[in-house]
Amino acid sequence: MLTFRQLFDPQSSTYTYLLGDAATRQALLIDPVFEQARRDVALVEELGLRLAWTLETHVHADHVTGAWLLRERLGSRIALARASGAQGADRLLEAGERIEFGKRHLEVRATPGHTDGCLSYVLDDRTMVFTGDAVLIRGCGRTDFQQGSARTLYRSVREQVFSLPEGCLIYPAHDYRGLTASSVGEEKLYNPRLAESVGEGDFVGYMEHLGLAHPKQMDAAVPANLQCGRPAEERARADEPDWAPLTYTFAGIWEIQPGWLEEHAREVQIVDVREADEFNGPLGHIEGARLVPLGALAARAKEIDAALPIVTVCRSGARSAQATVLLKKAGFERVANLSGGMLRWRAQRYAVEGGTE
Ligand SMILES: N[C@@H](CCC(=O)N[C@@H](CS)C(=O)NCC(=O)O)C(=O)O
Ligand SMILES: [Fe+2]
């Protein structure tokens, strides 16, 4: 069984792919994006996977890879093409190699043309191929910079991608219209640049006249990607909360665990967003918690002290998750949700005011 997710970065229109072997929990990410590393860590952890590899299809020109950051956070190893010229990888790949994840593997194919170091990764059963920018849906990567060559790309696609079974699904590195997947059979018929009816000369002519502006991030992205996404200076990450050991969920919520709150209650303000009858009901409430029901929170946000971090609380952790969203919108920066709410707080036998045993 394969765990498979297609993730999107809206800034650069990049797809990141998570593949996991359900039997052994070993996983890999293809083309992670630097700014999305936190999201990717959350998903890997929530699915109970262990990230063995991050793979690059090539040295990207439009965004910085998350490979280095993910290695720091999850201990994954970085692999990309030897021909990419990148420094700092754990493995430099050549055509024909296999990347194992648990009982599954990807086969490495060299598909240069967009760049010299472009690789496509074919799933062991040939039902999926991750083509990077070699084949896009009804398109292909540009060939006007980074060692690009239209002739080389044409041959790569014909020999390495279109030789796969017709039903093999194509997953590209980008799509600028929101299309998600195609297949070998479909692209052979309908790709306006690369369909079987298009000759090499026609393709070269097409690619010489794309007339695209260079990617906006190119000058920063290429040098960073040649270091596998390692930032030039390892500055403290300003957007990483440091007031408590918070967990970021794939749902996009910062959470705090009951054990930390119990020890540090005096350093934060606890905002309980349940209704008054629940606050005074059988579950009780945490000592010092201020009652502001969720429905009144936006209007009463002014009452909350911006100088202290806020922990929101409710019965199960659901309404208080929404409360963190409202408080962030109201301008509070240091906000976290009490994971599991009063139910988990009580289950872990922490003290309450009021309530029944
Ligand atoms: N506007 C985008 C341009 C992105 C771009 O040029 N993408 C490359 C892949 S790195 C490409 O080959 N695009 C093909 C196309 O747009 O048809 C940006 O600034 O990032
Ligand atoms: Fe690219």
Verbal overview:
The structure is a single chain. With 357 residues, the protein is an alpha/beta fold. Helix content is 25%, strand content 23%. It has 11 helices and 18 strands. The chain has helices at residues 37-46, 67-74, 150-161, 184-190, 200-208, 218-225, 258-264, 276-279, 294-300, 319-329, 341-347; strands spanning 2-9, 14-21, 26-30, 50-55, 77-81, 91-93, 98-101, 104-110, 119-123, 128-132, 169-172, 182-183, 247-248, 254-256, 269-272, 290-291, 310-313, 335-338. The chain has a 6-stranded mixed β-sheet with strand order 1-2-3-4-5-6, with helices on one face. A 6-stranded mixed β-sheet has the order 7-8-9-10-11-12. Strands 13-14-18-17-15-16 form a 6-stranded mixed β-sheet. The radius of gyration is 25 Å and the shape is elongated. It starts with a strand and ends in a 10-residue tail after the last helix. The relative contact order is 0.10. The model has no long low-confidence stretch (mean pLDDT 96). Fe (ii) ion is lined by residues 58, 60-61, 114, 133, 141.
